């Protein structure tokens, strides 16, 4: 997991440092304050993990090339030039660094005419091999078939989608437990989370005939066929199993289901195939999870995110949604070890620089355009009611 992120003279940031919670981090701020840029930069600095997994002796030149390529693919700057991500008007070099929980670090710099990042510090970086996951604002589940089909030109796909989308599509194609009942019953961490995801949307997505489709249903507990009828013996073994029970025999293409449901389906798939494995996978970055999702679903989604964090999954969200924020504020339980850290980005009135206010209690965040707007809306509603 990431413990510290520093960005200097990078895109909209003059100088920004975040101390990140190992549990849940929420990035808030008005449009144009760099929430998505921050998430992508942090995700890009995690790009060494798959590289070192495949080649532990990767040298600096190869690492610099890989990190440069990843940033270019995530941000897709004009003319595909790294220097376009250097903050306009800055005279000093751009600087990006991330520190990780195991003491590893990666730090790199570039100027506005640089063709590649220059690694300045890679202390034990090769030891960091927990691959991060990035879920972008728009859903990908219905696009996976087209994005990963070998009959399509991959270069054309990359012209349309940045690596936030391409990486996610590839991750969803990763083979894993298609028999999710076995997974749910074998892994106690998922015994609650996966059934909750299915309950949230009233069914599950599964891979059928070269694409994802939706089957309505729910998980139920049933008596285990292996249990003994002897009551004393039942005290020493699990007597139930969790099974998915379809409520309809019809399958629906993913494109025929609500986009908000498809976003939940992405999380279900990533847990089912092991891409997200709480306690061992890297950070989960999720940009605007509330997008196209009815506020009614937000409470259960927050409960699922909290459960993931309780099992060792670092979560870093970017959001505009007041309902999401308040449910995180209300449902976080310190007695269960929950910790939510809020990072509010804002533009300084005098310098116009992007700054950050960080708090471990949402009520202590003074610079929140989201809360201020809802308070203003409430005041206007009261005024109208009073005549």
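^ Assign residues to that structure.
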């Amino acid at each position: 997991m990431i413990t510290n992120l520093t960005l200097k003279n990078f895109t909209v940031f003059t100088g920004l440092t975040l101390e990140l919670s190992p549990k849940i981090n929420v990035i808030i701020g008005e449009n144009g304050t760099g929430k998505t840029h921050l998430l992508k930069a942090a995700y890009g600095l995690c790009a060494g993990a798959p590289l070192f997994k495949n080649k532990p002796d990767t040298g600096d030149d190869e690492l610099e090339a890989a990190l440069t390529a990843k940033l270019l693919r995530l941000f897709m700057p004009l003319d595909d030039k790294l220097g376009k991500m250097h903050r306009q008007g800055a005279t000093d070099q751009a600087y990006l660094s991330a520190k990780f929980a195991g003491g590893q670090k990666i730090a790199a710099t570039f100027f506005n005419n640089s063709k590649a990042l220059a690694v300045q510090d890679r202390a034990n970086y090769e030891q960091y091999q927990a691959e991060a996951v990035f879920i972008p604002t728009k859903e990908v589940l219905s696009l996976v078939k087209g994005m990963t089909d070998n009959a399509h030109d991959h270069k054309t796909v990359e012209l349309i989608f940045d690596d936030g989308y391409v990486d996610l599509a590839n991750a969803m194609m990763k083979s894993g437990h298609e028999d999710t009942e076995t997974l749910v019953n074998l892994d106690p961490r998922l015994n609650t989370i996966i059934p909750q995801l299915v309950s949230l949307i009233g069914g599950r997505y599964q891979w059928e005939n070269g694409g994802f489709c939706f089957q309505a249903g729910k998980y139920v507990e049933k008596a285990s066929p292996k249990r003994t009828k002897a009551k004393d013996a039942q005290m020493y073994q699990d007597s139930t199993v969790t099974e998915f029970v379809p409520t309809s025999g019809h399958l629906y293409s993913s494109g025929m289901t609500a986009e908000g449901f498809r976003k939940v389906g992405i999380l279900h798939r990533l847990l089912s195939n092991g891409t997200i494995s709480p306690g061992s996978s890297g950070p989960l970055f999720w940009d605007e999870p509330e997008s196209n999702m009815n506020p009614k679903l937000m409470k259960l989604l927050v409960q699922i995110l909290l459960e993931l964090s309780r099992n060792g999954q670092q979560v870093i969200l970017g959001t505009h949604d007041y309902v999401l924020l308040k449910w995180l504020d209300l449902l976080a339980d310190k007695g269960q070890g929950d910790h939510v850290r809020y990072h509010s980005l804002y533009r300084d009135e005098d310098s116009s620089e992007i700054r950050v206010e960080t708090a471990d209690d949402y009520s202590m965040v003074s610079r929140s355009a989201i809360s201020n707007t809802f308070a203003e809306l409430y005041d206007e509603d009261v005024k109208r009611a009073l005549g």
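The first helix runs from residue 35 to 44.
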